[in-house]
Each structure stands twice: as C-alpha cells, then as structure tokens.
User: Fold this.
Amino acid sequence: MTLTRRYRTQRAGFGLLTAAALLVVLPILLVIGTIVVRGIGAINWEFLTAMPSHGMKAGGIFPAIVGTLLLTLGTALAAIPVGVAGAIYLAEYARDTWLTRAIRLAVVNLAGIPSVVYGLFGVGLFVLFLRFGTSILAGSLTLAIMTLPVIISTAEEALRAVPVEFRTVSASLGGTRWQAIRTVVLPQALPGIITGVILGLLRAAGETAPILFTVAAFFLPRLPQSPLDQTMALPYHLYVISTQVPGMPAQIQYGTALVLLALVLSMNLVATLIRSYFRRRRQW
Assistant:
C-alpha cells in the first residue's frame, strides 16, 4: 500500500511538473508562431539588404542588422577577455577572504540590475566623461559592462567544476599553475565558459535601453564609418517603428521582429554547436 501511494504521489508530481512546463513553453511557442506567421510576408532580399526610406515605411532594415552585429561584436571583444580573466582569478588565484566574497556578491548583484541603469551609467561614463559621444564604442562598452557579471559567474563555475586531479597531475609533472590553467583547465572548462558567453551576448543583442542612451539613431539610412559613429540597431528600430511612426504597416513590424529573433537564434545555434564540439572532446 505504501509503495502504491508513493507511486501515485510520484505520478502526480510528474504531472504537475509537466503542466508547469507546458504553461511556460506554450506561450513562448504562441508568440514565436505569431511573429513568424505575421512577419514572414515581409521577408525578402530587398527588406534585408536595402536602406530604409520614406520615413522607414519602405525599403529595408540593412543598417539596423549591421548595427546589431557591430554592437554584438564590440561587446564580445570588450567583455570576453575581461570576464574570462576575472573568472580565472577568482577561481584559480584568489584566496577565500572577505574581499573575494564581497566581489562575488557584487558580481551576482550586478547581474540583476535593470538594463536602463547600465544605460544611464554608460551615458555618464562613456558618452559624457570620456567624450566618446553617442557611438558604437560607447554602446559596446556599456553592453560589455552589462554582460560581464553573467560571463564571470558562469565561467568561474565552469572552472571550479574541472576536477582538482587535473591540476594535481600537471603540478606533479613540473608545470606551473598558469601552464595547468592554460593547457588543462581552460580547455576542459570551455563548454561552460561558452555557455556564459552565449547568455551574455544574447542579452546584449536584444537590449534596447542601453543602446537608446549611448548609440542608437532614430533614422540613419547609411552604414557607420568608424567606431565613433552612431548606428541603427534592430531592438531600438523595432521599438521606434512600433511606437513612434504613425501608419507603419504591421507586416514590417513583425518582419523586423522576425529578423531579430532569427539573428538571436542563429547566434545561439552556432554557439551551441561550438560548445557541443568542445564538450565531446572533454576528458571527464
């Protein structure tokens, strides 16, 4: 009787978990399906490669696509080296003191700060104090600071997950700590590090508030020429055509959202394939 009751309780628990998962997944699938159905008609070669015209009611979104890619690339160049280096220090070199505990707590808290706060910080530091102006450089650095907590936290956990025996064997063979980290620990922790990088860059690619203050242009039918130029970006462009342009065809709005969704999912797919490749090569 007791086993039967436990079995029924287990089945009921699994049923509740399944229902909760469906409640989370179904709205997401509904939103994606709506975007695809209502936006697929706007997708064509001209829409993807032409400059906007007639107050963004015609033409394409090419400058916004290029701007999003440039901002994501700039964020990666600024955030990945600093984030991984910080994670290596916290995981491999820093002692367990009140200072390192405070740093870890600060990193966790920074990950939960609203993006608009990072945008205001970027305006004060990069746009005004360092006089970068509203530019790709200021926007990329702002997004990099926003993504650093995610990269540092996940990379540190990935490094700590590597068994201590790997480091011990390297030391027993006469290797230095840095040699062990560079040749043994980092390659084994790459899947977890790439996961953190994916999460950070995907958040950066879809943010509106930070680029609204630091880089995004309302209407700019040309490509940027230098890192100190403004640029259009898909998240802000979508916000503008949805709220600030009267008479904008709904198909263009949903088409822009579909392009942004496809861009983010493509980045996720490529990064997942890279992560899977390194995970297959992992030795534990």
About this structure: The mean pLDDT is 87. The radius of gyration is 23 Å. Residues 2-39 form the longest helix (38 residues). Residues 36 and 258 are 6 Å apart (CA to CA).
